[in-house]
Amino acid sequence: MTEPTGRRERKKAATRQKIADTALALFLERGYDAVGIRDVAAEADVAVTTLFSHFASKEALVFGHDREFERQLTQAVTGRSPQEPVVHALRREIRAQVRHCTADSARPFWRMIDDSPALREYEKSMRLRHAESLATAIAGDVGLAEPSTACRTIARFVLDAFQLAREAADPETALDEIFRMIEAAWAVASPSEGPAAGP
Q: What is the distance, to the nearest Å, from the Cα of residue 12 to the centroid of all Cα atoms in its chain?
């Protein structure tokens, strides 16, 4: 009985990915404002209602990696080894994400976002959602039932680190500078963990 459910979930995931890939290709080829929802649905060979069952808005189509990014971010906290300090784990994850986002192949994508006020605003709201999920993971890691102000602050710093490093001329140096500050802030908020070791 679990196998058909697995097949259904895989089919749903494949449809979602196909829609996201199609939308991104169209947006990059024709420009975000020049492509409508119906254009994406037609090109992906799905009904508009199917598209909206996977993506709540046109902006959401651009950020098809939204859920995966959030999952990887929280997994950096919940899936790390007990010996690894939380800030160290988050720095490692953000560094990997920034390297991916600053690759030459990603430049057209970020240029499209930077050129669109609607996409910039959507990305900002998305970052706040990710920060709240990360704050919840951090809170759970230190035994809190709900995120404290300190957990939320650190989580927002981490998401800001991603944004600032992505836009910096030297992303690696920017990340090192930012995470030194995050590490110091977390040492004050959670002194029992101590400072993270390593880059």
A: 21
